[in-house]
Every structure is written in structure tokens, then in C-alpha cells.
Amino acid sequence: KSFLNHTAYLSCYFPNSQKTDVKDLRVFWQKGDVEVVHEVYYGQEKHDNLSPKYINRTKMDMDKWTLQLLNAGIVDEGQYTCIIQHRDKGSPKVIHTSECLLHVIANYSQPEIAWLDTGELKSNEYLNLSCSSSGGYPEPKQMTWLISHENITYGLIRRMDVSQDAVTKLYNVTSKLNITVPTNTLTNISCLLHLGEQLGILVSVPLGI
Question: Which CATH class is domain 2-105?
Fold first, then answer.
């Protein structure tokens, strides 16, 4: 995993148990079946075969056998293959391949609750709220609302509207809530954005009514 616009680290997982000299190895990375991302040709960096979008964006750490992909973008997501060939009696022989799956993450903004009504709140009338969060990736799982009054807290799931920017590929999400205005008791309403198991949950500032 890599954060958007940060450096992604992709490992070859090459033990080099034979302690082979890099001058006898050809190391290249490719994305999918066609795009060459990086090539070290018998100890020298080689740029002739690189896909244009990776030029000046990669560095190979030959001690750790790890490729650094600079300024990772959403379009860089996908499967990468590291292939190592050994110069054996003149004809190169593949001695190691490994695959790496890159996921790119962009942080969502803190969810924010907004009033959709103007005017004074009256008991037993309906209250319309929206909760929004923007600029994140990948697409979140869902948005839930938490309503707390006195000693009771309950959750509500409402439809989450999702839009994706055509250029940046980042997502914006919004959910709307329509509930009756509580009477004579302080009520706190929060909105939670669920980003999946490893990324956790973002919580809005509670709205007190």
C-alpha cells in the first residue's frame, strides 16, 4: 500500500543466496504484460525500453532489491512483476520472478454534517441533515449515522451517494438523514464513514440538538 503522491516500495523478494554480482544480472520490473517500469542491465540503469509514464519516476535499491516508485498515483495501482535474469554462458536465464500488488490510498476529509433546513427547529417536525466527505480513495464501504439521547444510542444506515472525479479518480461521498426533531432532551448526532477493515472509520464532529 502507498499513500497518494508518496513513494511506493515494491520488493523483488530476491534472497541472492549465491551472492551473484549485479553486473551478471539483468533486473526488470513490468506492470501487467506490456509496460516496462524499470530496468537494470548488468549493473547499469537502462531507459530505452521504459514506458514513458515511468521515466524519472523510479529508483532501484540493489541492496534491498526494492523498487521505489515516486509520486504514486491512482493510475499506478495494479500488479507489478520483478524478473531477474542471470547471464549464463552468454544467454540470459530467468533465475527469479515475483509479483507485487500495489494499492493506493488517499485520505478522506473528516465527515461534516450540514443542516439542509433553514429556519427555527420545532418539536416533532422533520430535521434534514447531510453528511459529506471528499477527496479519498478507494471507495468507502458505507456511511452510518449515530443518534444518542439520554442513555440510548442507535445507528441508522442511509443511502450513500458516491461520485468520482474523472481526472483525479478520487471519491466524494454524501448521505442524507431525515428524522423527527426530539423533544425536551439533548440529542447528539454523528456521522461515521467506514473505510474497510484496515483503514478504519472516520467520525464527524457531533451535532448537538
Answer: mainly beta
Instruction: Examine domains 2-105 and 109-208 and report if their fold is the same.
Output: yes
Asked if the model's pLDDT at residue 96 lies above 90, the reply is yes
pLDDT in tens, 16-52: 887 888 888 999 999 988 899 999 988 888 888 889 9
pLDDT average, residue stretch 1-14: 94
What integer is the mean pLDDT of 149-168?
Answer: 91
For β-strands 201-203 and 207-208, DSSP reports them as unpaired
All structural domains of the chain with their residue ranges = 2-105, 109-208
What is the Cα–Cα distance from 103 to 4, expressed in whole angstroms?
Answer: 10
CATH of domain 109-208: 2.60.40.10
Distance CA 206, CA 209 (A): 10
pTM greater than 0.85 (yes/no): no
